[in-house]
Write a structure and sequence with these properties.
Layout lengths: L11 H10 L5 E7 L1 H4 L9 H19 L3 E9 L2 E8 L5 H17 L11
Antiparallel strand pairs: 1-3, 2-3
Helix pairs in contact: 1-3, 1-4
Length: 121
């Protein structure tokens, strides 16, 4: 049996603020569960609104990884349950991170960002 405590740990806004203020080496858990299942329609215990919130956080985490702001790692907690962690890299200047996040926000609001997670909606 799979332990399923899936729930929203952090909002997109909270995660974005953390990305712009966290020191190198800081760690933030952004999900507890099985991400690929928790963002898929019909295979999650999350409500539609919670699923959309999780997709937004996962997109931002992926973007931060692509921009080399964070490392994304997972820690297995139990069968089918993982802690999804973002670790701030040591190479990005805070002002550059802030610029990257602001650019992401503008694109997200314009709905023009071509991120891989967009297909999960």
């Amino acid at each position: 049996m799979v332990d399923d405590p899936s729930h929203i740990i952090v909002t997109e806004a909270e995660f974005g603020r953390w990305l712009t203020t966290a020191e190198p080496g800081a760690v933030r858990q952004y999900h507890d569960g099985f991400l690929i299942l928790d963002v898929a329609k019909g295979s999650t215990r999350l409500s539609s609104e919670e699923r959309k919130m999780l997709i937004a956080v996962a997109r931002l985490a992926w973007l931060a990884n692509e921009q080399r702001i964070v490392h994304l790692v997972q820690r297995r907690l139990s069968s089918g349950r993982f802690a999804y962690l973002a670790i701030i890299r040591r190479t990005k200047a805070p002002q550059r991170v802030r610029h990257d996040i602001e650019t992401y926000e503008r694109r997200r609001l314009a709905d023009t960002h071509p991120l891989i997670l967009g297909s999960w909606e």
